[in-house]
Design goal:
Layout lengths: L14 E2 L2 H11 L5 E5 L5 H7 L5 E6 L2 H10 L6 E5 L13 E5 L5 H8 L6 E7 H8 L9 H9 E9 L4 E2 L6 E8 L6 H12 L5 H7 L24 H7 L1
Parallel strand pairs: 2-3, 2-5, 3-4, 5-6
Antiparallel strand pairs: 1-8, 6-9, 7-9
Helix pairs in contact: 1-2, 6-9, 7-8
Amino acid sequence: MTISSERRKSLGQCFLEDKNILALEAKLANPNNKSVLEIGAGDGRLTEALLALSPKKIIAVEKDPRFAAILKEKFANEKTIEVIERDFLELEFPDDVDVVVGNIPYYISSDIVFALAPLKFERAVLMVQKEFARKMIAKPKDSNYGRLSVTSQLAFNIRLERTVLRHLFKPTPKVDSAIIVLAPTGTKLTQFQENVIRWLFQHKNKTVRNALLDSKMFGKDDLEPLGPFAKRRAKSLSKEECLEIA
């Protein structure tokens, strides 16, 4: 059994088999003469597609030591590729990254998107669960609309590029995937603003006033400035209105 077939479920390892989709991801990243950071490089199949488009540098981040070893051996003679054996969420993000790319583990997709939100780069091309992508682009009153939608849309201009069917991965996951392209807007949320948005959407069917009271972080007098927002349902608020409240 090859190492590529020994997938670790705990790390969410499903590998894209379709070379045309890999080539599309690389094309969307547009890495020519750019510094690229790849999240979860695995056995290097997306890395190879990126390398074919003449990047200035690829930083291949891989948590699994088995795959990190494969990457180091596979690209030993490629001076443009640096392999880092580390969890992306624990990585000190380099200052010179232009593009972020990754077929990211579905179980930590939210963590990765929230981690990317305050960082500086030109664009990100990510493969995520299809349902996760729908939540990212959901609009007010949509059943998928929530904290992820608001935080993501404040931080990024988001484009859902295409759906990728589950049978194109091995082992075959239980869900379809989607490629999304993120372009930072420059909006940076403070920790307090992030907390307010989280509190609002923990009780999104309640009025804004009651949702914030339930957080136990505000008294009734603190919420007087809400004005007409007080009686609105959190799920009806636009991202701009959420930011105004926060």
